Automatic annotation (TrEMBL), chain A:
Signal peptide interval: 1-21
Cited PROSITE patterns: PROKAR_LIPOPROTEIN
Membrane-crossing residue ranges in chain numbering: none
Family to which this protein belongs: Belongs to the bacterial solute-binding protein 1 family.
Protein origin, superkingdom: Bacteria
Protein name, as recorded: Multiple sugar transport system substrate-binding protein
Species the sequence originates in: Paenibacillus macquariensis
Pfam families cross-referenced by the UniProt entry: SBP_bac_1
Lineage of source species: Bacteria, Bacillati, Bacillota, Bacilli, Bacillales
Keywords tagged on the record: Signal, Sugar transport, Transport
Membrane recorded as keyword: no
InterPro entries given in the database record: SBP (IPR006059)
From TrEMBL, chain B:
Spans traversing the lipid bilayer: 24-45, 287-304
Class of enzymatic activity (EC top level): transferase
Entry protein name: histidine kinase
Keywords (A to Z) from UniProt: ATP-binding, Cell membrane, Kinase, Membrane, Nucleotide-binding, Phosphoprotein, Transferase, Transmembrane, Transmembrane helix, Two-component regulatory system
Pfam families: HAMP, HATPase_c, His_kinase
Reactions it catalyzes: ATP + protein L-histidine = ADP + protein N-phospho-L-histidine
Organism ancestry: Bacteria, Bacillati, Bacillota, Bacilli, Bacillales
Species annotation: Paenibacillus macquariensis
Record-listed E.C. numbers: 2.7.13.3
Length: 425, 581
């Protein structure tokens, strides 16, 4: 009897060991199943925030989101960086009624139907304090008297110049109130083709939005104020000459094309010390400083006898109409445009007067021209005047590209107007 | 421990003495180990077979999955290039040129084309470019054409005539800002535009897909299976190979798959040792378990058998003690099993022997006492007989015939009485002596009594203890009869191999109280002669034939007494030696 028992014990012990040896592998393969996070998601509210930024700017935004999370326990901000595919992904999100709750926004004419009107939120909200914002910023986010976005950052456009290159050629630094003639002269003087050094860089592919500042400064515009006519505006001699000027500078060699096929970007050439002047918004300023360039900032030149006009590029935050957490989204937007968050964001110009005053940004010579240009930005951009502007813009961009590659501005713009007018009907 | 081992060694190998324990141990081990080992071997072979076949299938599936994944990449890329190619074949695109477009219309065409290229981009697409002969290209502006020769297969491709050329895996480092070191891994496809019709003849379509996931899959596969993965194109160019060095052998397990799109062959080689790795783990485990079980079985067997044999040994020791005369030895009874009953019966046997020996001792002592007593009473028979013969002769001379008769009979009785050379005598002799005794009584009392004898002649030759009847007859005359008046009946019969002698009289009988005391040895001594004859006779039977024999007395006061004695038949030996043992 005992003999039998011991046998049974031994055989079972052995088969157990064999079994465990066999199942060991399975466990390691299946054992790492992730715990289902079903309960957690019902307790923690998740807010999706879409941005087009990348790199350092994105990192700052993630930091702001984290701060908001610590201030609001039980909240999770999911930062979705769409980068280049921003428009595509946003449109897809709206189409699938699954958009992010909060998103960066600038193209209100295109998207406003999918956005939550914010008047009821913004009016009378003391935390927001609408009056502290630079006047005019709200206009960009307003369609037919409805506010669809809260300005989060903006920039105007200025001319950066490399002080060292000016010093080397013993040319005095440009000053506010200079003209395009001064600009072209300086460009010529600073150009040294032997050193592959140029006075100015012209973008091979321009955003026509940015060109509006020059057109307005020359007393014209891309579209009539009522948004119904382009003939005589887009192809006016003032518009044509403003654009032609850049084509001519490339042609006569005082400027170099940048950012095209096989070309370095203008910022990189400027950082490399190969162009003396570069026209842009606030964005590259930090990188210029980091690259060790002794950079100066000056407001845009004027066309003789005409006032300088600026154009504002604004980014705002909007709430999707399909969002399920609108109140929380509003809290997040308010935090995002609060003094605390604005101070964290160095890639944008502060939207609040109080912050600018506190940081004395309007006293800083590197920042002051941006605010001067802001005061000069009272024209309405074309995309706000006509909902079909995107289509027209496609033709106009091609025309501008043609001009900087040596085309005749007047002829090309005439042709563009002819082909674009069908979108106005 | 050493001591124990030595002991075991001695026990196991000493040929002369094999204890039951050793035998038990061996039997036990054989009974345990054979099924254990066969079970272990069986389970090993079964599980190894299952595991090997499963692992083989797993490997095949994994390679098939790699093939699927890779071909899905390749298909997608191939389709994209075909879309671009067919777009270029459209006569409307004939204006797309080799040079930088400058006119408004050319730029519009370029933009349209690039919109298509952008639309063709998918999540994994890292770049779609159409590189013209002049070096101008269509696509995103981030390409540096001069760096394209960094692609390992790019220069080779220029000598190739095929339209589609798969560039394989390489780091994408031909961007404007890329350096040679960085760049994520991509899978590239270049298609030469050779069609005599359509735009951009002589250009190359370059499409690159992010291959990090795919390469990660390859790595997972390599880590999982430890196999050596190699992808070749049909020309024998190595597209991908596991980084670790590998010597292929005939014995390797090989999983093969060919991708349909471009004929790449995926080959995963696994050294046989790795393939059988899991089964060899099972084998070693099985062996370890088997050895452990054997050891355990050995220990258990040792413990059990020693526990078992300890009892036998104890019994053996007890027997030894008994052999040396220690009759009080008792073994301990542990359990109610065969050994337990053996112990019990051993104990019974010893106590039986003990009581038997006591009995023998007692009977021996009685015998000695009797002999002593005999010595005590011994009289020189010659003197007695001579004297009696002289008296007899004197009586004849004086004419006293009665006295001479009595003396004659007395002499005969005494002769029988005093002949102590034989303890057992034939019944016939005893009966003859009784006749003499009765004659004496007849002379004494006259013809007052009757004696009836019932005995077959053949029974007369059987033996009976000497002087058994005479005291009983004396008792009858002295206690039973008054003045010799009465009837005595003696019968001898045989029952089976026993003899049954019945002596009955019609005398006074014995009272019930006296009858009770008759066989108690102490009481009779005190009472003097009465009952001594009965007890003596009884003792004689018991001494000669055993305790179960003897005589019984039935008596009713005033009516008579019946004495019955029973003893086994025994004939006189031929050589005359009838001494009992």
């Amino acid at each position: 009897m005992k003999k039998k028992i011991s046998l049974v014990v031994l055989t079972t012990a052995m088969s157990m060991m064999l079994l465990t040896a066999c199942t060991g592998n399975n466990e390691s393969a299946n054992g790492t199943t992730q715990p289902v996070n079903g309960n957690g998601s019902t307790k923690v509210k998740t807010l999706r925030f879409a941005t087009w930024d990348t790199g350092d700017a994105l990192k700052i935004e993630q930091d702001i989101a984290k701060k908001f999370e610590t201030n609001h326990p039980g909240t999770k901000i999911q930062v979705e960086a769409y980068a280049d595919g921003f428009d595509q992904k946003l449109a897809a999100g709206f189409g699938a009624t699954n958009p992010p709750d909060v998103m960066y926004m600038w193209d209100f004419p295109t998207y406003h139907q999918s956005l939550e009107p914010l008047n009821s939120y913004a009016d009378g909200d003391k935390d927001l304090n609408k009056d502290d914002f630079y006047s005019g910023l709200f206009n960009y986010a307003t369609i037919e008297n409805s506010l669809y976005g809260i300005p989060a950052g903006f920039t105007t456009r200025v001319v950066y110049y490399n002080k060292k290159m000016f010093d080397d050629s013993k040319i005095p630094y440009p000053k506010d109130g200079w003209t395009w003639d001064d600009f072209q002269d300086i460009s010529k003087q600073l150009t040294d083709k032997a050193k592959k050094q140029y006075g100015f860089g012209v973008r091979a592919e321009n955003d026509t939005y940015d060109l509006q500042g020059f057109v307005w400064s020359n007393g014209s515009s891309l579209i009539s104020d009522d948004g119904k006519t382009i003939n005589g505006y887009m192809n006016s001699s003032e518009t044509a000459s403003a654009i032609q000027m850049f084509g001519d500078m490339v042609k006569n060699g005082s400027a170099v094309l940048a950012g095209g096929k096989g070309q370095q970007s203008g910022e990189d050439i400027f950082k490399g010390g190969k162009i003396a002047m570069w026209e842009s918004g606030i964005w590259p300023l930090e990188s210029f400083k980091q690259a060790g360039i002794d950079v100066g900032v000056v407001e845009m030149p004027a066309f003789p006898g005409k006032p300088v006009k600026g154009v504002v590029a604004e980014s705002a935050l909007s709430i999707a109409k399909d969002s399920k957490n609108k109140d929380l989204a509003w809290e997040f937007i308010k935090y995002y445009v609060s003094n605390e968050a604005i101070k964290m964001r160095v890639a944008d110009l502060p939207v609040r007067v109080s912050v600018v005053k506190e940081l004395k940004k309007d006293q800083d010579p590197l920042y002051k021209p941006f605010y001067t240009m802001l005061q000069r930005s009272d024209n309405t951009p074309a995309f706000l005047l006509n909902t079909k502007w995107n289509e027209i813009n496609r033709q106009l961009s091609a025309a501008v590209e043609s001009v900087v590659h040596g085309g005749n501005a007047q002829d090309t713009l005439n042709q563009t107007v002819k082909e674009s007018e069908r979108y106005l009907k | 421990m050493n001591h124990l081992l030595k002991q075991i060694y001695n026990r196991l190998l000493s040929g002369s003495y094999r204890s039951i324990r050793t035998k038990l141990l061996f039997c036990f081990l054989i009974v345990t180990i054979i099924p254990l080992l066969s079970l272990g071997a069986l389970s090993y072979y079964q599980s190894a077979k299952v595991i090997n076949s499963q692992f083989g299938k797993y490997g095949e599936n994994a390679v098939a999955q790699l093939e699927q994944q890779t071909s899905s990449y390749l298909n997608r890329m191939s389709q994209t290039t075909e879309t671009i190619y067919s777009y270029l074949l459209d006569p409307a695109r004939v204006d797309l040129g080799d040079q930088i477009p400058t006119s408004y219309k050319d730029i519009m065409d370029k933009n349209d084309f690039e919109v298509l290229l952008k639309a063709l981009k998918q999540d994994r697409t890292m770049g779609i470019y159409i590189i013209t002969r002049s070096g101008y290209y269509y696509g995103e502006n981030n390409l540096d054409v001069s760096k394209l020769s960094l692609i390992p297969a790019w220069p080779v491709m220029k000598n190739s005539y095929s339209e589609k050329y798969w560039l394989g895996f390489y780091p994408q480092n031909h961007g404007m800002e890329d350096t040679i070191e960085n760049g994520i891994s991509v899978l590239g496809l270049a298609v030469s535009v050779n069609n005599p019709y359509g735009a951009l003849r002589g250009s190359k379509i370059l499409i690159e897909e992010n291959a990090e996931d795919l390469l990660h899959m390859f790595q997972l596969f390599e880590n999982d299976t430890k196999a050596h993965l190699k992808i070749d194109d049909p020309q024998g160019r190595v597209i991908y190979e596991t980084a670790a060095t590998f010597n292929s052998k005939e014995s390797d397990i090989v999983w093969n798959k060919t991708i349909e799109v471009n004929g790449w062959s995926i080959e995963a080689r696994l050294p046989a040792t790795s393939f059988y790795h899991s089964s060899s783990i099972i084998r070693s485990n099985t062996i370890i378990v088997a050895i452990a079980s054997c050891l355990l079985a050995f220990v258990l067997a040792y413990l059990f058998s020693s526990r078992f044999t300890v009892r036998i040994r104890r019994l053996k020791d007890a027997m030894q003690k008994v052999r040396f005369g220690k009759l009080h030895t008792m073994t301990q009874v542990d359990a109610k099993d065969e050994l337990g009953s053996l112990d019990t019966s051993f104990n019974n046997m010893v106590s039986g022997i003990q009581s038997l020996i006591g009995e023998v001792e007692r009977s021996e002592r009685l015998k000695k006492e009797a002999e002593l007593r005999a010595f005590h009473y011994q009289i020189n028979p010659h003197l007695l007989f001579n004297t009696l013969n002289s008296i007899q002769w004197k009586a004849r001379l004086q004419g006293a015939e009665d006295i001479r008769q009595m003396l004659y009979h007395l002499t005969m009785v005494l002769e029988g009485n005093l002949d102590i050379s034989q303890e057992l005598i034939p019944i016939e002799r005893e009966l003859r002596m009784m006749e003499h005794f009765l004659k004496i009584q007849e002379i004494r009392y006259g013809p007052m009594f009757e004696f009836e004898l019932e005995c077959d002649e053949q029974l007369k030759c059987y033996l009976i203890p000497r002087m058994t009847l005479q005291p009983l007859f004396e008792n009858i005359f002295f206690h039973g009869f008054e003045d010799g008046k009465g009837v005595i009946h003696l019968s001898v019969r045989e029952t089976g191999n026993h003899l049954l002698l019945t002596l009955s009289d019609n005398g006074a009988g014995i009272s019930a109280e006296k009858l009770k005391l008759l066989f108690l040895p102490n009481m009779t001594k005190r009472k003097g002669r009465g009952g001594l004859g009965v007890q003596n006779a009884d003792q004689k039977f018991k001494l000669h034939f055993g305790l179960q024999y003897g005589l019984t007395v039935q008596s009713i006061q005033g009516e008579g007494t019946r004495i019955i004695m029973e003893w086994p038949k025994k004939e006189e030996n031929l050589n005359g030696n009838n001494k009992d043992d």
